[in-house]
Design goal:
Number of domains: 5
Number of strands: 77
Helix content: under 10%
Strand content: over 45%
Structural class: mainly beta
Length: 1069
């Protein structure tokens, strides 16, 4: 079922201000979000959002029927694999499989270039329209156009975009995405794809109303020849409820499809069937054959001798968590799936062991190729959430070669789930006749309703898939006009006509065209004129940039109407903004997470509707965390651990196997290993890893020196759990402590040989253990029943565990606990419900004492982690860090609130690692921060920096009102070194310490001094100062870009400049 309910497309941009420095020291650059442009194809019965990186569906926004908010497609994309210089390379765009290896723009183009977006044109657009004008940028990037005057140059007032269907959406993307992917990580193949998507509106009941076409013009732009390339359509379909889907394919129609196993909770008794049909495969050498290549409406159809069009060459599927057909975790597994007929390990599929009806003679390359309608042949019989691939290849592409592959989304909806397959096949059969010679005639108008003092512009458009089919002759006729009107059609350039209405009323224009094939096509267009003028909308968002947690005022009160008509207001906000969309000129709305989006208002009088929009940005509410790294790929992580300069990350799967990653914890991480493990949580000591939770046994793995995991055993019993978070186990090598809920026992195992764990002790404990926590030789277990509560145990001797103390909590129930530095933390409920943590002083574990309380309400706790005196609370909307050195007085020392849940956190003082789970286009993903710390002058110089450094201010941007949820000040940090050996700067005595005269000043864009923050001699150390956005005179500075400049002078040696550096920052209000 869809996870989002609004359908507003948005251009999402994250602004990153980069620093600059004098001398050779480079400023630190943090990765920025790519520009994510979203366009929606919605002219017929299908509503399909597209992203400019090659993906579609937008995580559940692919709706059928259009406007129903019922999902048919969760995510769509593509997959390519081939060999460059004998090396296997893969480039997939399969977002729900955590693979994202394509990016917006042409090959070599900065993916953040604002031109790397969608360009849309419809039959309602005409010469000089905004769509025609914008198409010039598409042409500059490779898009086709109809050159009406033959001069080879696109003129938006004369020439036409290469429109196919009622609407065409064009973009370009490439596989040059930085390979930090947790899946494949091979170098790119140097491919560029110019994508055209089009659809037809035939009134709602025509086969074309159930179809969306895709043309991929694939260009080998770089990296040399690509051998044995296989290119695939990839889909993660969800027909309503995602757990009741079956898949199949029909080799007569070259279509792979998904259908329901019966009634669906969302679609009811007649859920649709959805398929991907190959219309034109890649071309390959084939002496004596002839290939036909449709290359778009401009270039038409090429006839190529000694070539052939490849049919689809296999149909494959996989399931996340399946032991044999699981998500591909490396390039070779991805290649096996694109070849088809092979499982993840490269072994041939045996049709007799999959589904029903398969025989030894069944071709395994076309999975489930039987007929579910007649219950014959090889068929799927286990409904679940599935992904599939329609594969075409292999074929070769030399450097500079192009290939055109065309496929279509095809939907059919009949009387029940099986009849929908029949309807879908009927639509597929129609496509085989329609493509590529279909043609239609349309009359486009600049507007269908205008004031009588305006001019209608009509243009006859012949839509043919095989240009140069053309109009030979065209006859125009005004067949209806208001009584008393003398208005006449007037000829314009090309196939245009003008109409200057003289009276209010309806006008009907008829166009009759004879085309080059000899066929006559007739169509009409109705327009209306009124004695009224359109309203003039005006929209302002105040403020346009906010800190998460604040609200924005959308103000359209400055909108007006020339005729004084009463105005109505219809508002549209992104799905992630809460608003009461009443018919009013001013609305306050609250974004629920970070990101950039647009608000739109449609202002209507009795006749006309005009729209206005404005953009806004939400930045996180951050305290004392300095961002060092962001990775969008890891955006569904449920547990992190820092182990010996590595990050271990688990992305929990509710089925069986969970994706697991090990990578470097630094600022330039490399994926050492990615695999799948069993369980919802894990513990590790860097040599053994134990996966547990949401299953009855514990899986043990050996961690090899190259950071690969070797499965060892799964014989240790874990049993059921009470809380949503798995009851924690404890690995204190060579022992593994496992508390059980039922039977009520604490088991101890010797796991020095994880392949053969040995149970060495079983200890009785009270009934229903909910959770456990451990520190050194102390274990704490929380029990659910009344009068049981929290108990501590001495576990230094695993054969003789000693109970220490009990602390009762009221009311009894589900609670989650953590332990660190002599403190036990007890939540006031299950994760995702708890809003409070009770601190228990366990410095004397045989004398437990209630201490302080941490309350986060209205926030909700989803995870807890303790590291020494630090407590980290993952929340539904971010993360908070507390110093609990004094258990009676916890102090919040840092936070990041963004609206995204945080389950995975890790700590290596002062480095903090975390994952915001959610959509990467809004900033969710993996983050690495430095916790803000500093030395006072004269402090311990053993930790003094080894070089000068001016760090990026934080938060940046900053500003807003001086409220508790804003960032009215920004922190500026710098570091002063101690000696030549550390700093390498002339003038410092070797091994000695000396101070310098330091100035830190703020300047505006014109170089005018705004504020002096530091102007004094300082000793070596780390410093932080704040700027509140005011000048030296106390006057608030205007919004805009400012520079802050650090200058250090050695006055002892004559005033020589030791260091000078400046950076940029953004003040917003």
């Amino acid at each position: 079922m869809p996870r989002k309910i609004s359908r507003m497309p948005a251009l999402l941009i994250c602004l990153t201000l980069t620093g600059f420095a004098a001398g050779e020291k480079a400023a630190f650059f943090t990765p920025a979000l790519l520009i994510a442009d979203v366009a929606t194809m919605d002219v017929n019965n299908i509503e399909l959002p597209l992203e400019n990186d090659g993906s579609a569906g937008l995580s559940g926004w692919g709706y059928y029927p259009a406007g129903s908010n019922i999902t048919f497609l969760f995510s769509g994309g593509l997959a390519s694999s081939g060999y460059v210089n004998g090396e296997l390379r893969c480039s997939w765009m399969a977002k729900s499989s955590l693979v994202q290896e394509w990016q917006p723009g042409k090959w070599g183009m900065n993916p953040q270039n604002p031109l790397a977006k969608f360009y849309a044109v419809s039959i309602h657009d005409g010469p000089g329209s905004p769509a025609y004008l914008a198409w010039a940028d598409a042409v500059a990037q490779g898009a086709d156009f109809i050159d009406e005057n033959g001069d080879g140059v696109y003129d938006p007032f004369i020439d036409r975009p290469a429109l196919m269907g009622d609407k065409t959406i064009w973009t370009v993307f490439n596989d040059g995405f930085e390979r930090t992917s947790p899946r494949f990580g091979t170098p790119p193949m140097g491919l560029e794809i110019q994508q055209s998507v089009w659809a037809y509106d035939q009134g709602g009941s025509h086969p074309l109303d159930e179809v969306i076409f895709f043309r991929w013009k694939i260009i080998n732009a770089d990296s040399g020849d690509v051998d044995s390339l296989i290119h695939s359509f990839w889909a993660d379909p969800d027909l309503g409820d995602y757990t009741d889907d079956l898949i199949g394919c029909d080799t007569l129609f070259d279509i792979g499809y998904v259908y329901n196993d019966g009634d669906d909770p969302w679609y009811g008794a007649n859920p649709p069937a959805f398929g991907a049909k190959l219309l034109q495969g890649a071309m390959a050498d084939s002496p004596g054959d002839t290939a036909y290549a449709f290359r778009g409406v401009f270039q038409g159809i090429d006839t190529l001798l000694d070539k052939k069009n490849l049919p689809w060459t296999s149909f494959m599927y996989y399931i996340g968590g399946d032991p044999v057909l699981h998500e591909p975790t490396n390039a070779q597994q991805a290649r096996y799936y694109q070849i088809g007929g092979l499982n993840a390990w490269g072994s041939p599929i045996n049709p007799t062991q999959w589904g029903a009806g398969g025989t030894a003679q069944t071709n395994p390359k076309y999975f489930y190729s039987g007929d579910p309608v007649t219950t014959t042949g090889w068929r799927d019989n286990i409904a679940f959430d599935k992904r599939f691939l329609v594969n075409c290849g292999p074929f070769n592409m030399a450097l500079g070669d192009t290939q055109d592959i065309i496929f279509a989304y095809v939907i059919g909806r009949g009387t029940d789930a099986l009849n929908s397959i029949t309807v879908m096949r009927e639509h597929a059969a129609y496509l085989q006749e329609f493509f590529p010679l279909g043609r239609t005639l349309h009359v486009a108008a600049n507007e269908i309703l205008l004031p009588i003092d305006s001019l209608f512009v009509f243009e006859a458009i012949l839509q043919t898939l095989a240009y140069p089919e053309s109009i030979v002759s065209l006859t125009w006729q005004l067949i209806q006009r208001p009584p008393g009107s003398a208005a006449q059609l007037m000829p314009g350039p090309g196939f245009q006509q003008f109409l200057d209405p003289d009276l209010p009323g309806d006008y009907l224009v008829k166009a009759e065209a004879v085309i080059s094939s000899g066929e006559t096509l007739i169509t009409t267009r109705a327009v209306s004129a009124v004695d009224n003028r359109p309203p003039m909308p005006n929209l302002t968002l105040t403020p346009s940039q906010i800190i998460y947690g604040a609200s924005i005022l959308a103000d359209a009160s400055a909108s007006s109407d020339p005729d004084g008509d009463l105005l109505n207001f219809e508002w549209t906000f992104p799905f992630w903004a809460n608003a009461d969309t009443q018919n009013t000129s001013m609305i306050e709305f609250s974004p629920v997470h970070t990101g950039s989006g647009k608000a739109q208002v449609a202002v209507s009088d009795p006749y006309f509707t005009r729209t206005a929009e404005d953009s806004f940005t939400v930045v996180p509410n951050v305290l004392n965390l300095i961002q060092q790294l962001y990775l969008p790929q890891f955006n569904e992580i449920h547990q992190l651990k820092y182990v010996d300069d590595k990050i271990f990350a688990l992305s929990y799967s509710y089925i069986t196997h969970s994706p697991f990653y090990i990578f470097d914890a630094g600022a330039n991480p490399t994926t050492f290993y990615s695999t799948s493990v069993v369980g919802a949580r894990f513990v590790t000591d860097d040599s053994i890893l134990a996966g547990y939770g949401n299953r009855t046994s514990i899986a043990l793995y050996r961690i090899l020196p190259d950071f690969t995991l070797m499965f060892a055993s799964d014989t240790i019993f874990y049993g059921s759990q009470s809380a949503t978070r798995a009851r924690d186990i404890y690995l204190q090598f060579p022992y593994l402590f496992v508390p059980l809920r039922s039977p009520s026992q604490l088991h101890v195992y010797d796991v020095s040989d994880p392949f053969s764990p040995v149970e060495i002790a079983v200890h009785a404990i009270p009934h229903i253990a909910v959770d456990a926590a451990y520190q050194g030789n102390i274990a704490a277990i929380y029990f659910q029943p009344v009068n049981t509560g929290l108990r501590t145990y001495e576990i230094s001797d695993p054969l003789n565990i000693v109970p220490l103390d009990t602390l009762i909590f009221f009311p009894a129930g589900i609670r989650v606990i953590e332990m660190g530095a002599g403190k036990i933390y007890v939540s006031n409920g299950d994760m995702r419900i708890a809003t409070q943590v009770q601190v228990v002083d366990a410095s004397q574990p045989n004398n437990l004492q209630l201490a302080g309380t941490i309350t986060v309400a209205p926030d909700v706790i989803v995870e807890m982690e303790a590291h020494g005196d630090l407590l980290i609370l993952g929340l539904e909307n971010g993360v908070r860090l507390y110093d609990v050195t004094d258990p009676n007085a916890p102090v919040e020392i840092a936070h990041r609130l963004s609206g995204f849940p945080v389950y995975g956190t890790a700590w290596n003082d002062p480095q903090f690692y975390m994952v915001e789970n959610g959509d990467a286009q809004f900033g969710a993903g993996y983050y690495y921060f430095d916790h803000l710390v500093g030395l006072e002058p004269g402090g311990d110089l053993s930790s003094v920096p080894g070089e000068f450094e001016l760090l990026q201010n934080y938060p940046n941007p900053f500003g807003g009102s001086h409220s508790s949820r804003s960032n009215p000040v920004t922190n500026l940090r710098f570091r002063l070194p101690a000696s030549v050996s550390q700093a390498g700067i002339a003038g410092f005595p070797e091994g000695g310490f000396r101070s310098g005269f330091v100035t830190l000043k703020i300047y505006d864009l014109l170089g005018r001094e705004v504020k002096t923050l530091v102007n004094e001699p300082l000793a070596p150390g780390s410093y932080m100062v704040q700027w509140d956005g005011r000048s030296d005179a106390g006057i608030p500075a205007a919004s805009g870009i400012y520079f802050y400049k650090l200058r250090v002078v050695d006055k002892a040696s004559g005033g020589g400049v030791l260091f000078e550096q400046a950076r940029k920052m953004l003040l917003v209000k």
